[in-house]
Write a structure and sequence with these properties.
Malonyl-Coenzyme A Acyl Carrier Protein, domain 2; single chain; Alpha-Beta Plaits; 46% helix; 4-stranded antiparallel sheet; 6-stranded mixed sheet; 13 helices; globular
């Protein structure tokens, strides 16, 4: 049996002008206009004309990413076997699973971005990627510095978060056999520093129209599938101040026999992790609409391979 999972990237995947080709698709501009109203932002301008600094802003990046993910998934037009997203990409996945309507997802994401930006302004904090090294050694080292492993992404990648002083100490005192790269983000996301944002989203969550997911939804909290819409929303709120366990999401993909992964726009980051952690799984990133045909071909090839593997073997004729 073939299992396709659609995955949605998180903050940092956006690049200047990345949304422009998607707006050329029929109906896309009108949908984005509606979502701009829900987000109280001109998403079309930010996705086509804004520079890197403008779209790095948490308040802009988050609804922009969810909008792009929804547009590209709609253009692909496939029902996957599972859905998952990284950080804010979880909201994209929740909308694609039918847990919350698209308009509500955009409004909720915009509120999330504003609340996280406000929380980040309280203390000077940030994030750094730690690449390589023994994972247990890296985690112990971060703990010794008072840093939080905000993203445990698998494939040798852990993102540390904390105060700028703590991150400076990490850069000066790296874990053995590891590289440290400072990330251009506004704060220590997915840590206790985001507690004020959790409170803001808790107040908003009861206003959402919630349904149970139509396909298995894999949660960043623990990599487990969640079948209750109310529980998905509860986790979306709590995840703002809790670590992203993408490593456990990929472990679930492996355990569930995922055979293909397609990353919605602006794709690339998550399929890169999958290529290293899930050898043998077919992967494709939707960067522009030109990738849609290749994605459909991948889906068809994956289905054909599964059908061939499930076909009964030819039996030898009986000898008389």
């Amino acid at each position: 049996m073939n299992v396709l999972v659609l995955v949605a990237p998180g903050q940092g995947a956006q690049t200047p002008g990345f949304l422009a080709p998607w707006l050329e698709l029929p109906g896309a501009a009108d949908r984005l206009a509606g979502w701009s109203a829900a987000a109280e932002l001109d998403l079309a301008r930010y996705g086509t004309e804004a520079d890197a600094d403008e779209i790095r802003d948490t308040k802009v990046a988050q609804p922009l990413l969810v909008a792009a993910g929804l547009l590209s998934a709609d253009a692909l037009g496939v029902t996957p076997g599972m859905l998952a997203g990284h950080s804010v990409g979880e909201i994209t996945a929740a909308a694609l699973a039918g847990v919350i309507p698209a308009d509500d997802a955009i409004a909720f994401t915009a509120a999330r971005g504003r609340a996280m930006a406000d929380a980040a302004a309280v203390t000077a904090t940030g994030m750094s990627a730690v690449l390589g090294g023994d994972p247990d050694t890296v985690l112990a080292h971060l703990d010794s510095l008072g840093l939080t492993p905000a993203n445990i992404n698998g494939a040798g990648q852990i993102v540390a978060a904390g105060t700028l002083e703590q991150l400076a100490e990490l850069s000066a005192n790296r874990p053995e056999k590891a590289r440290v790269i400072a990330l251009k983000v506004a704060g220590a996301f997915h840590t206790a520093h985001m507690a004020p944002a959790v409170a803001a989203l808790e107040a908003l969550a009861p206003k959402l129209a919630v349904n149970d997911p139509s396909v298995p939804y894999v949660s960043n909290a623990d990599g487990q599938t969640v079948n209750s819409g109310a529980e998905v929303v509860r986790r979306l709120v709590a995840q703002v101040s809790n670590p992203v366990r993408w490593d456990l999401c990929m472990q679930t993909f492996q355990e569930r026999g995922v055979t293909a992964i397609i990353e919605v726009s602006p794709g690339g980051t998550l399929v890169g992790l999958a290529k290293r952690a899930l050898p043998g799984v077919r992967t494709l990133a939707l960067k522009t609409p030109e990738d849609l045909e290749a994605a459909r071909e991948l889906i068809a090839e994956d289905a054909a391979a599964a059908a061939a593997s499930e076909a009964p073997a030819e039996q030898e004729p009986l000898q008389r």
